[in-house]
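TL;DR need structure tokens for one chain.
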Amino acid sequence: MKRTKTLIALILIVVLFGAALFYLWQKNQEDPVSYTTEVPSEETIVVKTVATGSIVPKEEVLIKPNISGVVEEVFIEAGEYVNQGDLIAQIRVIPNVSNLTSAKNTIASNRTSLQTAEINYKTQKAIYDRQKDLFEKGVIAANEFDQVNNTYLQAKQQVEQARINVTQSRQNYDIIKTGTTSGLGNIAQTQVRATVSGMVLDVPVKAGNQVIEANNFNEGTSIASLADVTKMIFEGKVDESEVGKIKEGLPLEITVGAIEDETFDAVLDYIAPKGVEENGAIQFEIKGTLKKIDSTFIRAGLSANASIILEKAEKVLAIKEALVQYDEETKIPYVEVEVGDQKFERKDLELGIGDGIFVEVKSGITKDDKIKVWNPVQGTPQFAQQ
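>> reply
TL;DR here they are.
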């Protein structure tokens, strides 16, 4: 009885072991992966690089005084629009004692010269009158009278020049003392006027501030900065790794952080020929002119990003870059196209531009081909995508 039970147990063990081997053999005959497929799509592919920067006026004009002194009154505020010639500020001159004394001495010297010239003129005129009478009576020769006449005319000219010198020295004294003089009218140096039309961006001075005139040795104090805010540019920097990919004339798409859901078109106008080191990397300055911003007010200095469009292909046949395989020897790109149930055939491709997600397909497949997703996760049920 015991032998029978032992035999039955052994038979059961052998049967179960055989069934397990058969099950494992069957599972081994099945393909462990069921590949999904994807079809090409029509895409607009844009290859671009991004630069950070800010929006600034294309031309910003600094208004500076023509004379040193103290700001007596400011007539404008930031944000106002002014026309060329509008009064911006009034300057009160604080005269330099040394210059004022020198001007006084010049006036006195010119007056003395005028008096001397007038005395000489009176003397020469008397001589001229006597010699004229003698010449008319035929007593003296014409050559002798011509010499007297020339001397008389020179004396007269010296008087006229001396009077001009006195007038000029008086005007110079007035300018040193008050900043203006009679006859200057609207060009009085104490009045600072707008040299261009535009919006006032900044007024860095106020009444009571001392200002310095602009000259060959000093830039002078800025009274205000003006700009045409309808003509703005993007000013930013790109890394040295990207500067070789861009060129002047490329289109830009500008996004301003403070203005949501709006993009501005621009054109790349300038690429700096020399880079500047910043935080261990070489940066190159770029500039791009914004187009058609009349309807939107962009404040100067707002931070912005510029997408520089390197290449663009609109509405082209494209596939995901993850579907593309490359021949190990020839490096030719290809995909596997479904020709039957889980049966695929290799198709070599001619590719165009790619943006990291999609890549343009110029030839090799059609829009109806089902392309094998060649790198699925094993063990996960997958279904064909139509």
